[in-house]
UniProtKB/TrEMBL annotation:
Belongs to the glycosyl hydrolase 17 family. InterPro entries: GH, Glyco_hydro_17, Glyco_hydro_17_plant, X8. It holds the Pfam family X8. It catalyses: Hydrolysis of (1->3)-beta-D-glucosidic linkages in (1->3)-beta-D-glucans. Residues 362-447 form the X8 domain. Keywords: Disulfide bond, Glycosidase, Hydrolase, Plant defense, Signal. Its EC number is 3.2.1.39. GO terms for molecular function: glucan endo-1,3-beta-D-glucosidase activity. This is glucan endo-1,3-beta-D-glucosidase. The keyword Signal applies. It is an enzyme of class 3 (hydrolase). It comes from Dendrobium nobile.
């Protein structure tokens, strides 16, 4: 069924609506933005992208109004600074529900309330009021007869688990045990879900090179090199699954089971400061694309293969008013003016090796600043091991330009990128390439992804030439791998 849909090449973000098999991908809408678009503009962006699930960090009245009758499901947050009040007073909780939730029903389809955000790790002093706040909110819903429609939970950082590898031995920080126990008991009693903010970006960057970036970006690892949990023998192909599985095992260690996990934040920044080189468009596009595939594939994690992991991408807009390093302001898929930072709006999968007809309007070209020696290497790699179809840049062919290395490299880079992007290939080439929306096609030289009707010339079967994993990445991986395994073993024992 899934494959059938993909074969028909439906635009990927269209999947952001509830998926046939049950799992969904939604998006966070943070509003620390100096030029915040109007609520109605935000809703039209969501609708244009076919996004069906959103998370609001607070009960923004204009957004809640604008989301009415849109078919979009809404998770509403209780901000951390309102937690104390609600956790200490049953009537404050009831007030909050009346003003911020009940007032918008049934027009606005509110289905979850997220009480606080990363309370246990970011404001440990307020930890004791977390579960009482959840209980008061739930009682208020019960009194209003809304408890079946709206579930209550609270998102946690992965830092509630001090040591998440191997996942099978993960436990919650023991100083949090009694609160965690109450929290899980509450979820169990009310049929709610554990909320997890899973950000491989932070774990990857904090680990300072211990992990290969492929592991963080869901790029295929060579099967021989997958990362094994020595106790369960589950093999992990990506960091996201490791984080989620660590939570399942930590829950199990407190003797709870059957509690689903919702990932309330996951994403990758598209730009950052000089010392944040992994925050770039290429990685952000790869992470979010692969995350969407992973979640909608509905295959769960190694330990819970049948449990869907509904996930909210972090986030819709870049938030220029957020504090912290430059990357903190650049997690958005869109600029606040509505222009896409990068295009997540493409058809999904390389099917049977043919070029994805998606990524329409997005091109991978040589950087102007790249030097010719590096471009030559990139070109050779793309046309050789990379499997790009370079026939159009041969002498006598439409894209042949004997004196413009940048132009021919661009053709090869773009062809490689369009063939492999859906399976994790990226536009990087040792940092000599960049994504653009300016179509470099000219005359009869048509680039993959061009809207000119002649794009059929650049399609066609490529069964002999679409590696799902680029050699550049495998090499990088195998050198880091031994170190990784040794370190992991060191940590386990
Ligand atoms: C709200 O969302 C829930 C959960 O997906 C769905 O069952 C329900 O039909 C929706 N309600 C409306 C009014 O759209
Ligand atoms: C566990 O949590 C406590 C309280 O928040 C914190 O002080 C401590 O550093 C944490 N321990 C670990 C190993 O993360
Ligand atoms: C979980 O259950 C096992 C077996 O009943 C018991 O030995 C263990 O102490 C329990 N652990 C916790 C944290 O309650
Ligand atoms: C990056 O540089 C900024 C400003 O120079 C500094 O505040 C920050 O801590 C640095 N981040 C890392 C990860 O080194
Ligand atoms: C879905 O996941 C399974 C298990 O990880 C994998 O074998 C399969 O190829 C994936 N399917 C798609 C369409 O990505
Ligand atoms: C939107 O903002 C971005 C970043 O500031 C800018 O690059 C882009 O040109 C803007 N788009 C429009 C249509 O103004
Ligand atoms: C498309 O291809 C035809 C021949 O196949 C050519 O005559 C025409 O100029 C091409 N159009 C463009 C926009 O390149
Ligand atoms: C390579 O591209 C050329 C022209 O664009 C096309 O005729 C040929 O069929 C392609 N080859 C493969 C293997 O896709």
């Amino acid at each position: 069924m899934l494959l059938g849909i993909w074969k028909r090449g439906i635009v990927l973000l269209a999947f952001l609506l509830s998926h046939a098999l049950g799992s969904f991908v939604g998006i966070n809408i943070g509003t620390d933005i100096s030029n915040l678009p109007s609520a109605s503009t935000i809703v039209s962006i969501l609708q244009a992208q076919k996004i069906k699930h959103v998370r609001l960090f607070e009960a923004d009245h204009q957004l809640l109004t604008a989301l009415a009758n849109t078919g979009i499901e809404v998770m509403v947050g209780v901000p951390n600074d309102q937690l104390l009040q609600i956790g200490e007073s049953r009537s404050a909780a009831a007030d909050w529900i009346n003003k911020n939730i009940a007032a918008y029903l049934p027009g606005t389809n509110i289905t979850y309330i997220a009480v606080g955000n990363e309370v246990l790790t970011s404001i440990p002093n307020a930890a004791v009021v977390l579960v009482p706040a959840m209980q008061f909110i739930h009682s208020a819903l019960l009194a209003a007869n809304l408890d079946f429609q709206i579930h209550v939970s609270s998102p946690h950082s992965v830092n509630v688990i001090p040591q998440s590898f191997p996942p099978s031995t993960a436990t919650f920080n023991s100083t949090l045990n009694s609160i965690m126990y109450q929290y899980l008991q509450f979820l169990k009693n009310t049929g709610s879900s554990f909320m997890l903010n899973a950000q491989p970006y932070y774990s990857y960057t904090k680990a300072n090179g211990i992990y290969p970036i492929e592991y963080a970006l869901f790029r295929s690892l060579n099967p021989d090199n997958q990362i094994l949990d020595p106790n369960t023998l589950f093999s992990y192909t990506n960091m996201f699954d490791t984080m989620v599985d660590a939570v399942y095992f930590a829950i199990q260690a407190l003797n709870f089971s059957g509690i689903p996990i919702i990932v309330t934040q996951s994403g990758w920044p598209s730009s950052g400061g000089d010392n944040e080189t992994d925050a770039n468009v290429d990685n952000a596009l790869a992470y979010n694309t692969n995350l969407i595939h992973h979640v909608l594939n509905n295959s769960g994690t190694p330990s819970q293969p049948k449990m869907p992991i509904n996930t909210y991408i972090y986030e819709l807009f870049n938030e220029d008013l957020r504090a912290g390093p430059l990357s903190e302001k650049n997690w958005g898929v869109f600029f606040p003016n509505g222009t896409a930072v990068y295009s997540l709006n493409f058809e999904s999968v390389v099917d049977g090796g043919t070029i994805s007809s998606g990524l329409s309007g997005v091109f991978c070209v040589a950087k102007l600043s790249a030097n010719s020696q590096n471009l030559k290497q990139g070109l050779d790699w793309a046309c050789g091991p990379g499997g790009a179809n370079c026939s159009s840049i041969q002498p006598g062919q439409p894209c042949y330009e004997s004196d413009d290395l940048s132009a021919v490299a661009s053709y090869a880079y773009n062809d490689y990128y369009h063939r492999t992007q859906a399976s994790g290939g990226t536009c990087n080439f040792d940092n000599t390439a960049v994504i653009t929306t300016n179509d470099p096609s000219h005359g009869l030289c048509i680039f993959a992804g061009s809207s000119t009707t002649n794009s059929s010339a650049s399609k066609g079967p490529a069964s002999d030439s679409s590696p799902s994993v680029g050699v550049e990445r495998l090499q990088a991986f195998s050198s880091g791998y031994l170190v990784l395994v040794l370190l992991l073993l060191f940590f386990c024992w």
